[in-house]
Amino acid sequence: NNNALLHNLLWFLLAATLILGGALMIAFLLATRLQKQITDPLYSLTRHMSEIIQKEKYSSYPEVPSTQMYEINVLIDNFTAMLDQICEHEQALQKYSADLKQQVRERTCELEKSNQKLEATITQLNHAKNEAVNASAAKSRFLANISHEIRTPLHVALGMLGIVLGEDLPTEVQRKLCIAHDASSHLQGVIGDILDFSKIESGMLQLEDTSFSFTELARLVVKCLEPRAA
């Protein structure tokens, strides 16, 4: 009986060992298959994410092995959708950057044209200013040069008229010579005033406060115009 019990116990241990080994083998096979369905897609997805981060190529989609697990498929689909959104934002950013560069080029071109026009205008203004300064200087030199030539003949004419008026002449002739003398004196004053413009431009004009007779001035004007009115 003891031998039979021992024999049965050994057979029971052997059967239990075989059953346990078979269960472990089945569990190992199931774990291996489950690992391929879960860990392999996750590993591929993780590796692809690392490549995208390093290379910054968001347009490449992950090559993940097909799986029958719903959660893994949802994760892959969401990751792909996220890449699509990133690509869209990147394209929009590139388009905005290109448009901004084009606007900068256009504005720069417009500014260059405006600067060229402004420089041309400044050049023309400087040229006109130089011409005006040269013309004013030439006029001043001309007035200074002809001042002596204008005053000298008038002095001679006034001197000769003064000499003639000192002689014994008929009344009518003397009256006419007086008119000529007064007109020449007035002309001398007018020419002097005209020549004073050169002093105004050079800043050398000095104002004088002198008294005059309005009656005498009116008489002189009437006397000068009397022969033509007659």
How would you explain this protein's 3D organization?
This protein is mainly alpha-helical. Helix content is 86%, strand content 0%. The chain has helices at residues 2-55, 70-165, 171-202, 214-229. The radius of gyration is 60 Å and the shape is rod-shaped.
The string of secondary-structure elements, in order, is HHHH
Binned, the helix content reads over 70%
* Biggest beta sheet attributes: none
Unreliable stretches: none
Helix/strand structural class: mainly alpha
Shape: rod-shaped
Distance between the termini: 186 Å
How many extended strands? 0
Overall average residue pLDDT: 78
Strand content: under 5%
Continuous helix count? 4
Would you spell out the secondary-structure blueprint of this structure?
Blueprint: H1 2-55, H2 70-165, H3 171-202, H4 214-229
Helix pairs in contact: 2-3
List keywords for this structure.
230 residues; mainly alpha
Offer a quick outline of the entry:
This protein has 230 residues and is mainly α.
